[in-house]
Structures are given as C-alpha cells and as structure tokens.
C-alpha cells in the first residue's frame, strides 16, 4: 500500500484523490491517498506524521505551497524559483524533496491536447501571484518568443520579470498599456478572479487569429472566463488538463510510473457532464 495525501485548506473539494486513484488503477497499484485539511501551524507536524507512518510523499495546494517549499531539505529548480512546491517526496534517508509540477502540467496539457506550439509563441500571462510564478520557469524553457506579464498590482509583475529574466524573454507591462502590444498567440489566466465569479478583462484584439486563451482554473472557477471567451469568439481551454498533468508528474516522482493523463482527463470530463 502506497500512502499519499494532499494538504490544503479547504481541501474537501480536491480532485487529487480521485485522479491519483485512477492513475494507480492503470498499474494495478494499491494506494491510500487522503485529503487532509491543514493550516500553516499544523502542516509541519502533519507532514512528519505522514512520513513517519510510511507515507511516500504528498501534494500541497493553496495556501500551503510556500510552506511546503520551506519544509523541504532540497528543492527542484522550479520549486526554488517559485519558492513554492506542490509536491513533496519522502526519501528513506528522511530527506524531503520539493517539486513544483504545475508548469509541466500546463505545458504537457497544451502539447498533448492542442496543436498549440509554445516554441516561438507570444504569450500574455495575466496575474503575478503564486499560480503565475509556478508555471513561468517551465513556460520559458519551452522557448517562447516572449512572455509579457500583466497584473493589477504592477509591482508584482515587475518582481516576476526580475526573478525569471535570466531564463528567457520575459517582460512586465502595465495593464493599461497591453492594448498597444503586438497581438499574442496565447493568453494564460493565472489570476484568482474566477473563484469570486469574475473574469479578467480581456479583449479579443489582444489575440492573433487562431490564438488561444488558457485558463488555469477549472470547474466553477473557470465559468466566468469561459463565458467571456464564448461571447467574444475566443478559443478557450480550462485548466482541468493542467490539473491532471501536474498530478501525473507527481505520481511519476512517487512511483516511477508514467500514467496516461489523457485517459484520466476523459474520465473526469465524462463524470462532470
Ligand atoms: P495564487 O496563489 O492563486 O496565484 P495570489 O498569490 O493571491 O494567489 O494571486 C492572485 C492573483 O490574482 C494576483 O495576480 C492578483 O492580483 P494582485 O497581485 O493585484 O493582487 C490577481 N487578482 C485577484 N483579485 C483580483 C482582482 N479583483 N482584479 C485583478 N486581479 C486580481
């Protein structure tokens, strides 16, 4: 039995237990994957307990991704850059290693499900919080022409530009100036607005013909931007594939098996309809 968990608050709504159980089925693996509510205060002891009870690792969701990174003995480049981790792997030495698989989840979803090419693309990233930081490194490694970050609080966008500029062409832009930028191939919504029933104010003129709007949200939180895009005739994708994609990378880190994300994505979509 492989013991795993996801920590967060709230966490009851998490699809991770379901996704990882579907992955485990693909290999006939027996897993026990729990969703555990935690706060910044309780999280370190809960991680220690899981590890002491033979746990192999855990996922971490909001608002504990930074805490998870702080708790680790070693971090992957992407977790170190973002100063946030969504995956911990417990080693037999007692060491905990931190990873951030969100960027890989997004890139794998785009590559496998759409014919969108990140290489050479002009990308507008809307939002400059933890979600944006989590995907920037991997997106820059995919060789885009340029990533332009816009955010309500311009200083945060400028901070990300500074933190990631050695990895590739990245620039911040004030929201009021985005209209005078050349059009983009891809707009990525990394804001938390969807959780309050809102969408960022995008215009179809920001996108080249054939461009795509990718929302890192899924489920209810994706509905406002989905509706806005449908109304404006903008091709839209929610972030359910990214969720499954980041989980697949975590699963591989824990089990050394690479699950079929496409099948699980179909199973999830099927059960949502
Ligand atoms: P997460 O970890 O989900 O990224 P976060 O770090 O709080 O959460 O970041 C939320 C993002 O959504 C930020 O880019 C935030 O903009 P600010 O940096 O200006 O706060 C953005 N966001 C949240 N509410 C917003 C709103 N009403 N209008 C525009 N952007 C908003």
Write a brief structural summary.
Helix content is 40%, strand content 21%. It is α/β, with parallel strands linked by helices and 273 residues long. The strands form two sheets. A six-stranded mixed sheet has the order 2-1-3-5-6-4, sandwiched between helices. Strands 9-8-7-10-11-12 form a six-stranded parallel sheet.
Describe, in plain words, how this protein is organized in 3D.
The chain is an alpha/beta fold and 273 residues long. The protein has 2 domains: 2-100 and 242-272, 3-Layer(aba) Sandwich (Rossmann fold), CATH 3.40.50.10860; 103-238, 3-Layer(aba) Sandwich (Rossmann fold), CATH 3.40.50. Helix content is 40%, strand content 21%. It is built from 10 helices and 12 strands. It has helices at 16-27, 43-52, 65-71, 77-82, 102-113, 130-141, 154-164, 223-232, 240-255, 261-272; strands at residues 2-8, 31-37, 57-60, 74-75, 87-90, 96-99, 122-126, 146-150, 170-172, 184-189, 207-215, 236-237. It has a 6-stranded mixed sheet with strand order 2-1-3-5-6-4, with helices on both faces. Helix 5 crosses helix 6 (130-141). The mean pLDDT is 96. The chain binds 2'-monophosphoadenosine-5'-diphosphate (ATR). The site of 2'-monophosphoadenosine-5'-diphosphate has 13 residues, from helix 6.
